[in-house]
């Protein structure tokens, strides 16, 4: 029913059913993993009015478990990318997986568990996922985004730039037209409009496209 993708690895489908509403994956070697993808396989849909809350358990070095809500998936949104880097290991918020003391935690702190709980959509809408980063990290992310956006615009627009000499030669020919030109280049307004539309379309399809 569910599967997990970690970049550079095979799709993980070794799901453990705890009961009819709780499912769990064990995820190995997550020290250098920033994002994971959780998705429905299409074999079975959620019951009407139900979705899946997604939780992560990162044991601390001293073995303490910490279940945290990171998001959810539904029939309308059957897959999602979750950022898992930056979470405090061993930290926990009160949730349906918090009482899973009977289910052993990973023995090594660089392993983790991912839990999926079937819950009413009305309940999912009221839940607030834990955040994975501090304000400093968020600031770095915004700076990275701004730099990527500016670089994208510059590369796109400069590829359409035209010198005044080229414009003059396209209109008239002769020594006089060429002798009065400067080295300044020009970009048509339509180029700016096209770049903006392309950037907005990519952003609407994937808010993290600029990281790839």
TrEMBL record:
User: What are the GO cellular component annotations?
Assistant: cytosol; nucleus
Top-level taxon of origin: Eukaryota
| GO MF annotation: an example | nuclear import signal receptor activity
The chain positions of domain Hikeshi-like C-terminal read 142-212
Enumerate the spans annotated as Hikeshi-like N-terminal domain. Answer: 5-132
Instruction: State the encoding gene.
Output: LOC100178100
Per the UniProt entry, what species is this protein from, by scientific name? Ciona intestinalis
Q: Which InterPro entries match?
A: Hikeshi-like_C, Hikeshi-like_N, OPI10
**High-level lineage:** Eukaryota, Metazoa, Chordata, Tunicata, Ascidiacea
Q: Please identify the protein, giving its name as recorded.
A: Protein Hikeshi
Annotated GO biological processes are: protein import into nucleus
